[in-house]
Amino acid sequence: MPVITNIDDLKALYRRRTPKMFYDYCESGSWTEQTFRENSSDFDDIYLRQRVAVDMSNRSTATQMIGQDVAMPVALAPVGLTGMQHADGEIKAARAAEAFGVPFTLSTMSINSIEDVAAATTKPFWFQLYTMKDQGFVSSLIQRAKDANCSALVITLDLQVLGQRHKDIKNGLSAPPKPTLANMINLATKWRWGMGMMKASRREFGNIVGHVEGVSDAADLGAWTAEQFDPTLDWNKVAKIKEEWGGKVILKGIIDPEDAKMALEVGADAIVVSNHGGRQLDGALSSIRALPGIMDAVGDATEVHLDSGIRSGQDVLKAVAMGAKGTYIGRAFVYGLGAMGQEGVTRALDVIHREMDVSMALCGRRRIDEVDRDILLVPEGFEGRWQ
Ligand SMILES: Cc1cc2nc3c(=O)[nH]c(=O)nc-3n(C[C@H](O)[C@H](O)[C@H](O)COP(=O)(O)O)c2cc1C
């Protein structure tokens, strides 16, 4: 067993153990992948200020996100097809998050269903909603999330139409994989994944199959989902969904200050500065570069969270210092899951926690509420001056 010291170690192991189709699905951005790359590389442009001879005892990374206690300001992002990265992946990731004390967000496009995850956990998780043309189905998802006692609804706003990822087309991505020659050859080298999958409780989209009329198997499903995302979604519809839900609402996928202001108007409990991990609008600003403009636009009027590009505790610390009340990791936890199942997700959270804790200390801070812009060296013009 290789020694795991950082997120990249988990990624290397994940790559060895997971079918190419699912590795590629995770490890790609749309079109040229510029935004995907810059989401991470822009963090490197920000430096941390080392401070010395400061009492660094009794530290804590604990804080709150939307009023809920969290062991650190990091949640697991909603990731579709998580149960294809590893057998019962959503259940395993949710259990790891619960044990660690951070929120787990279940995607609409998950393999394990809302009910599966509720039955396998003891604390409320968050549910991410894609708005679909079929209003009845959207209402039934909302009701199922209420019945499962989900403590927040995360409405994703940046996927009314799908950004193209070349590899998914070339690989013929599907859940479960189709028995083509290329797939069979690749799967033959992934025996650990295959053995797990044989015992998995589900291999298809658990929130959809059996819950939508006319969708009974994977063949119907591909066609159904491709044409289901609602291109007519607007702020009125967002407000209506918020009302129907009646609980805490997090609006995900905001990268522009004007949209952040609109989110305030509909009364979001939090917004997530996110470009979907560089999977939608290629050429959009990285999340960390967009964050200062959004902080200026919304101030303290709502909680601002951030995802896209986080691969270390230093990245989390930088986002928090720039004003984010919380962050999410997507790929970083998938690497852990694909590498080692539930244990791997725990390792990913552990790595990020340690990195954040020690870096916070070396910046001379002991608690998250002491972390502010003062610990950063941000280059002039980082936020950009655009015409
Ligand atoms: C493989 C994959 C699947 C995703 N599926 C969803 C999804 O179903 N719903 C959603 O709102 N976001 C989805 N996202 C976006 C994540 O929630 C999150 O915004 C993104 O992963 C953050 O970037 P990071 O992976 O660099 O941390 C997905 C991301 C990845 C990598």
UniProtKB/TrEMBL annotation:
It comes from the Bacteria. Residues 1-381 form the FMN hydroxy acid dehydrogenase domain. GO terms for molecular function: FMN binding; oxidoreductase activity, acting on CH-OH group of donors. CDD domains: alpha_hydroxyacid_oxid_FMN (cd02809). FMN binds at residues 78-80, 107, 128, 130, 156, 252, 274, 307-311, 330-331. The active site is at residue 276. It holds the Pfam family FMN_dh. Its cofactor is FMN. GO terms for cellular component: plasma membrane. Belongs to the FMN-dependent alpha-hydroxy acid dehydrogenase family. Glyoxylate binds at residues 25, 165, 276, 279. Keywords: Flavoprotein, FMN, Oxidoreductase. InterPro entries: Aldolase_TIM (IPR013785), Alpha-hydoxy_acid_DH_FMN (IPR012133), FMN-dep_DH (IPR000262), FMN_HAD (IPR037396), FMN_hydac_DH_AS (IPR008259). This is Alpha-hydroxy-acid oxidizing protein.
